Each structure stands twice: as structure tokens, then as C-alpha cells.
Amino acid sequence: MPDTADALRAFNRFYTRQIGLLDRSYLASGMTLTEVRILYEIHDGKRNARLIAQYLSLDEGYLSRILARFAKQGLIGRRPSKNDGRQTDLKLTTLGMQRVTELIERSQAAIEARLSGMSTPDEIRLIQAMGTIRQCLSGDAGQKPAAQLRDLQVGDMEHIASRHGVLYAQEHGFDDSFEPLVAQILVDFLRTRRPQMERAWIAVRADHILGSIFCVRVSDDTAKLRLFYLEPEARGLGLGRQMLEACIGFAQAAGYRRLLLWTHKSHEAACSLYRKAGFVMISESPVHNYGQNLVEQEWQIELCTK
Asked: Taking the CA atoms of the chain, what radius of gyration do you get in angstroms?
């Protein structure tokens, strides 16, 4: 269809200009868009070159040269894979994590500036349109139903504990002490749950679990947000914000005056969501947990109750 092809080409020219892809370096970082994307993928949990090459459709030799340059610059470290001796696991160094954090903050600021004059109805139209484009170009149009939020069901507990353990090990290097902690939180929730004061939301698509979030009672006026996670395939689609809003709305309706959460400084994407939702960090301290040196943070949002 020539008309569709022409329209798509015109849109591509417009969009690349809008987001600065024609600039010599991405977000004035001194790096190309491809180099930045590779850093993002390592940050998001793709731990070896083959996975990154397949996901980004890159020539493995070209990718290898970029990774070698990153290693020389001190942005990434390498170590033999525990699962496949033929592969090398990649991990961002402290410097690499700082660089990605800076890029995320610059990107966020640029997007917020671009949307600053847009009305809420137009933002909604934009999000819906982007979702439609993604579905059509990926071949998923009419195939994948929208994600749904449901309550905790029999059989969910083992899955949620397992996925927490796997994802936090892959993405943050947590050791095997984390999964049992998650399992204990779930056991305690099921044993003592007060349905009018406590709630779980499980994000699912076609019976496939995509994530979870829990609202747990601390006292009559305080609740805690716990066990918030999303599968990599479900990130960046607005589902995390939907889950967070559901939890905050429930806490407010239940009469809590405040909602707390604990997280770690290295969880940049989650912290960005919390900040946008109105949470404020009230304390942080260095800790050694789950085999890692971490900076633990406490966040809080004050709720308006009737």
C-alpha cells in the first residue's frame, strides 16, 4: 500500500526530528543512539552480547567493538557466565550506572519539556496512538488483550516469589536470600490479611502474570506498598503507573493517612514512578543486604482522606 508507506516515512521523518535523533550525539552525551540503547539493555537485565545483538538486530562484530570500548572506558565489567561457559555476563560498573542514570534523567527532562504544554486529553490520545503503532508494527494488533489487574489467587504465591528471586538476581545481583524473604511476606499477608484494609493486585494477560503490587496494613493510619515488580516485557507501557495508582487509590479509600514503601537507590525506574505519583523520599542509609552493598530508601505519600 503506497499511501501507507508514504505516511509511515513522513511520520518517521517528523518523529526523528522531534526527539533529536538527527543530532550528532544522543542527548548531548557524546554517544550515538545505538551505544545508549546498548547501555540501557545491559541496565535492563540483558546480560550477554548474544541477547543484546538479537534484541537490537545488531551485527555481533559491531556490538563486540562497542562493548570493548565500554569496557575500556570503565562503563561495564565482564565475567564468565554461570549458566553457559561459552558466554560472558555483562554488568554496569558504578561509573556505567551513573552514566545510565544521567541519561535517564536527561531523557525524562526532555520528554517532560516536550509535553509541558499538552493537555491531559491530548496526552491520553498520544499514549493510545503510540500503543496502536506498537501493536500494528509488531504484528500484535488484535492478538494481545490488554493487561488486567486481579486479586491474589491460589498458586500465585510460588510464582511471585520465584520471579522476584530470578529478576532481582539478574538485574541487581541479589543472592538467594531474597526469594525466601518474599515468600515469607506473602505467607504473612495470606495468614493475617484484612480484606477491607489490605489488597493485592496481580497484573495478568491471558493468564500470564506480568507483575504484582500489595497494600499492607502497618497501623490504623499507615499502610505499606510491597512486592511491586513488573516483567521486562511489561515495562514502559503504562502498566506500572496503573498498578501504582490502584494501590494509592485503595489506601486512600481505606482511610489510611499515609502510604510508605522501602526501595533501593539503584531502582531508578521504580523511583521515577514513585516520584511522579507524589511520593517523597524521607530517609536513606547504606546497607549490606542480599549479598550487595545498597542504599536503602524510605518513601512516603500523604493521603487526603474524607
From this structure: 21
Render 53-72 in DSSP notation, one character per residue.
HHHHT--HHHHHHHHHHHHH
Distance CA 212, CA 246 (A): 11
Return the pLDDT at 122: 73
> Residue 1 has what pLDDT?
47
> pTM here?
0.54
| Series of mean pLDDT values for 10-residue runs along the chain (306 residues) | 74 77 76 89 78 86 92 89 70 89 83 78 69 67 69 89 91 90 92 90 89 95 95 86 91 92 88 90 91 91 74
Cβ-contact 164, 231 below 8 angstroms: no
Nearest to 202 by CA among 237, 170, 232, 231: 231
d(CA 202, CA 148): 8
Q: How far is CA 274 from CA 107, 143, 247, 279, in A?
A: 17, 31, 12, 5
Cross-strand partners of 38: none
For 90, the enclosing helix (H) or strand (E) is strand 88-92
**What is the set of domains in the chain, with CATH numbers?**
2-138 (1.10.10.10), 148-302 (3.40.630.30)
d(C-alpha 19, C-alpha 21), whole Å: 6
Query: With contact defined as beta carbons under 8 Å apart, do 174 and 111 qualify?
Result: no
Of 102, 18, 19, 87, which Cα lies nearest the Cα of 53?
A: 87
